[in-house]
Amino acid sequence: MGRARYDVIGVGNAIVDVIAQCDDEFLKAQSIEKGAMTLIDEARAETLYDAMAPGKEVSGGSAANTLAGIAALGARGAYIGKVADDELGGIFRHDLNAAGVDYDTAPLKDGPLTARCLINVTPDAQRSMSTFLGASVFFSEEDIDAEKIAAARITYLEGYLFDREEAKSAFVRAAEIAQAADRLTSLTLSDSFCVDRHRAAFRQLVRNHIDILFANEAELLSLYETDSFDEALAAVTAETRIAAVTRSEKGAVLIEDGKSVAIAAEPVDRVVDTTGAGDLFAAGMLTGLATGHDLETSGRLGAIAAAEIISHIGARPNADLKALAAQRGIDLDSK
Questions:
Q1: What is the pLDDT of residues 181-201, one digit of tens each?
Q2: Taking the CB of residue 277, how many other CB atoms lie within 10 A of it?
Q3: Where do runs of H (alpha helix) occur along the chain?
Q4: Is the pLDDT of residue 150 over 90?
Q5: pLDDT tens digits, residue range 280-331?
Q6: 41 lies in a domain?
Q7: 3-class DSSP assignment, residue 250
Q8: What is the pLDDT of residues 17-67, one digit of tens each?
């Protein structure tokens, strides 16, 4: 890949997260599926928000969290995603730019409010997400900034956005622009429910347009409709150049051109909140790949970033990720 203005550009749902602590009884009383992401409408969002414990509001969205992590690692990032022309939209824009990510997608003028994700975290650190997608899904090819896509070493696509036909077309368009510019395209499957809803379309996208695929074990098994992890690995190996499959405390398995590398999970004193673990693993790995590190080093960066994020509430880094990487022997200034 030639010279690039950005290391990574992300395309995803622009969402403000509201994160609160709760117990299992609250989940049952509110009919919330533990550990999953459930889509809700605006009325349900208002009712649930009123019932939740006092929460912490932070700009979120899976790909936006990844880009914030990439910026925290010292890499150059940009983001494309839709907010409304409202207060939360302004907060989201400010937060992402303040994190060092280039974000200037035009806001939605007429339509629903800026998206929000209501995250209830139980004492076992499981996060149960109820998401009102709002303005974020009103995303189309018109929002794809061709110049920025062509100027990024890697384009990173968020599976959560892959619902409306307009978004599917936008993903293909972004991948085509990246390919024409001799850049790489990456996809995260985001959630098993996304795979269940769009399996055939995801498979086609992966086969035809994706160089780097991110998934957790459950998502990969769902994508290839198998109970065998080895069978799923063999299938993804045949369909994409690089795959990163996270397995919680078991670490991750990375595959590049048919060769696999096991990445151990970084030790954590106490798991507080798993929100954003996959997003930050992607941040570390994409940063490594975009800045010329090998697959194993890139995977270790992912594990370091994921370990930092699960040690506290929220899906944006609290610690200096570059310093954490340096403490573990990875110099991000050497490339």
A1: 999 999 999 988 889 999 999
A2: 24
A3: 24-29, 42-51, 62-72, 87-98, 146-150, 165-180, 192-209, 217-223, 229-239, 277-290, 295-309, 321-327
A4: yes
A5: 999 999 999 999 999 999 999 999 999 999 998 878 899 899 999 999 999 8
A6: no
A7: helix
A8: 888 999 999 999 999 999 888 989 989 998 998 999 998 888 889 999 999
**Residue 271 sits in which domain range?**
6-13+61-84+92-106+137-327
Give the pLDDT band (50/70/90) at residue 118.
very high
* Residue 26 CB burial class (10 angstroms; 0-12, 13-18, ≥19): middle
Those residues whose C-beta lies under 8 Å from the C-beta of residue 196, and which sit 6 or more positions away, are 222
DSSP 8-class letter at 131: E
Longest CA pairwise span in the chain (Å): 54
pLDDT of residue 134 exceeding 80, the answer is yes
* Whole-number Å distance between alpha carbons of 226 and 241: 21
* pLDDT tens digit sequence for 64-98: 999 999 999 999 999 999 999 998 899 899 999 99
Residue 8 to residue 79: CA distance in whole angstroms: 9
Cα separation, 118 vs 236, whole angstroms: 32
How many alpha carbons fall within 13 Å on the CB side of residue 103? 31
Q: Which residues of 249-261 are buried (b: 16+ CB within 10 A; e: fewer)?
A: eebbbbbbeeeeb
Q: How many CA atoms lie within 13 A of 200 on its CB side?
A: 0
Burial class (CB in 10 A: 0-12, 13-18, 19+), 321: buried
Please give the Cα distance from 147 to 79 (Å, whole number).
Answer: 13
Q: Is the pTM of this model over 0.85?
A: yes
Residue 46: the pLDDT is: 86
Q: Is residue 34 part of a domain?
A: no
| Count: domains in the chain | 1
| CATH of residue 277 | 3.40.1190.20
In a domain, 178, yes or no: yes
Name the token pair of 223. 């994508």
DSSP annotation of 106: P
**162 lies in a domain?**
yes
